[in-house]
From TrEMBL:
<keyword id="KW-0449">Lipoprotein</keyword>
<keyword id="KW-0472">Membrane</keyword>
<keyword id="KW-0732">Signal</keyword>
<dbReference type="InterPro" id="IPR050490">
    <property type="entry name" value="Bact_solute-bd_prot1"/>
</dbReference>
<dbReference type="Pfam" id="PF01547">
    <property type="entry name" value="SBP_bac_1"/>
</dbReference>
<keyword id="KW-0564">Palmitate</keyword>
<feature type="signal peptide">
    <location>
        <begin position="1"/>
        <end position="21"/>
    </location>
</feature>
<keyword id="KW-1003">Cell membrane</keyword>
<dbReference type="InterPro" id="IPR006059">
    <property type="entry name" value="SBP"/>
</dbReference>
<protein>
    <submittedName>
        <fullName>L-arabinose-binding protein</fullName>
    </submittedName>
</protein>
Amino acid sequence: MKRLMLLLVLFFTAITLIACGGDDTSGEADQVETVGDDIENATELTLWTFVGQHNDLYSDAALKWNEENPDRPIKLVAETYPFEQMHNNLLLAAQSGEGGPDIADIEVGQFNNFLRGDIPLLPLNEHVEPVLENAVSSRFEIYAKDGNYYGAPTHVGATVMYYNTEIMDEAGVDIDAIHTWDDFVEAGKQVVENTDSVMWNVGTEDWLMDMWPMISQQGSDAFDDNGELILDNQTNVDTLQFLHDVVYVDEIAEITPGGMNQSEEFYGYFNDNGAASLLAPLWYMGRFLDSMPDLEGKIAIRPLPAWEEGGNRSAGMGGTGTVVLKQTEEAELAKDFLAYAKLSEEGNINLWTVLGFDPPRWDTWETEAIQEPNKYYDFFGEGIFEMLLEVRDEINPLNFTEYTSDVIAEYHTNVTQNVLRTQSQTPEEALEEAAAAVSIEMDN
């Protein structure tokens, strides 16, 4: 357990922003927001999160809950902690059975820690099952075990391709004619030949921004459904070879400045037309607004290229599952409020209007509230949710285990360095070596 927690601290802290799409509160003082403290006899519910932005959603939900449920008012005390501190303290509280909140956010990479042994979370089946037929169910499966759903997802995290239409037009490329990765490579050759930009970037710190979604498209992962390690399978080898080749053989891409597309170095590069496209989840839209404002009106969002005609054109990346702890003394109220905040139609609409996330319930994607003008439509144009409706059934679940952090460590520390930077190993050699290293950890 100590080894696991150390690895999670080292690697998942570094990718908190990637995984949840929110603000990183690491190093900041704890924040506390209270709603309903002016209501007599309101029942207090405590909530822990590691993303201050999420409290905008919960506070709004608490205000509306109290308006609509005057016979069951709540006093919501929402506390924001740094990523590492919150998850460590929550795990300790869950194991001891005391000292924890009623409700908590758990980052997707940490969630498996809470699904081992005597699970300290309450099943949410009575609230989840009625909405599954109208939702992207794979985003619920990553917070489930043995038929029980323990977490309410925060977004789909649908991975898409962002195209700089100014560059693509200059290159003479019709982005709507890019259907497969082969098409993508051919379009990239036109971009390189006719513009001063490259087509794309390949990250060395971006397991979640290129390698993982690209193998997920093909039904692969680092682990199979049973938790068996498949990191070095042929699909993964071929995908890593593709990433190598677009840089060194096809010469349509270059290594991502800063190693990942969430670095200040990359923001400046992409804002200055360094590359024509970017692969990232839909929640990455906020990065454009905050860090690449010069690109407003120049970025179009499209599905990922498929690996073959008719193949999957998206993948769900990152996430936060919100849970109710068994130790709560207000189980039904806590579950009902959580369902109201994140599983109801209004709650899912608010995931978009308040946070700018793609809500898990696709039946909300065509509602008037979702279609109302906002800053995201102003920046990227309309049609975002129409595109998501096309790919909603093409998102596979991810297979997290307690050793996912080991895979990410090996990929960033050794695989990408040896295959993509120094070219000292083939993809097959690097992934076999990484799989062997992870296997040793699994056997300890």
